[in-house]
Write a structure and sequence with these properties.
By secondary structure, the chain is mostly helical. Helices cover 84% and strands 0% of the residues. The two termini are 32 Å apart. Bound molecules: protoporphyrin IX containing FE.
């Protein structure tokens, strides 16, 4: 199996853990909140947060490192993003992925200052959800859309 194929498999696994976690939090956990007492929900959220802080740095490292490794193959297209549909869509996908990282750094900074209130936390999750839907769509569209 080629190195590129290994990177792609690592990328795909890391992507489904990362995207799956955010989708679970937005589509499932937010709805469960209505049926669970606030104290119990808070305990669950603390537990999930603790687990996420153990697991996610590794998942994010694999996701971005494998992405960068694969992007090397497309460096010519990335150097001239307006020259073709593939380069443009991949550039937008990478820009969205960098914005996802920005969300994490922003959330960590707010948490460090004790200013990560529930409303902001929810808005960050919703924005991450939209970013990820866009990233997954672009990841496939860049191979199938052309102009
Ligand atoms: C939130 C971060 C990211 C997510 C959720 C994500 C998700 C995905 C998904 C689902 C695919 C399709 C894989 C397949 O169908 O086999 C993909 C492909 C790809 N991603 Fe990412 N990605 C992310 C970040 C990045 C970054 C930072 C880069 C580059 C610096 C990158 C470069 C690529 C490339 C080059 C492909 C095409 C691989 C191929 O099919 O040959 N990704 N990504």
């Amino acid at each position: 199996m080629s190195a590129y194929a290994l990177l792609l498999i690592a990328h795909l696994f890391a992507a489904f853990v990362f995207v799956g976690t955010v989708f679970f939090e937005v589509l499932v956990l937010e709805r469960v909140r209505r049926h669970v007492p606030a104290r119990a929900m808070r305990a669950v959220e603390i537990g999930i947060g603790r687990r996420a802080r153990q697991l996610m740095p590794w998942v994010v490292a694999v996701l971005y490192a494998s992405g960068a490794g694969m992007a090397w193959r497309y460096r010519d297209a990335l150097a001239h993003p307006l020259a073709g549909s593939f380069g443009l869509l991949l550039t937008i996908k990478i820009a969205l992925a960098l914005s996802v990282l920005g969300h994490f750094l922003f959330a960590m900074r707010l948490r460090g200052r004790g200013r990560l209130v529930a409303g902001t936390f929810r808005r960050i999750h919703l924005s991450l959800f939209c970013h990820m839907a866009g990233i997954v769509l672009l990841a496939k569209a860049m191979f199938h859309l052309g102009w």
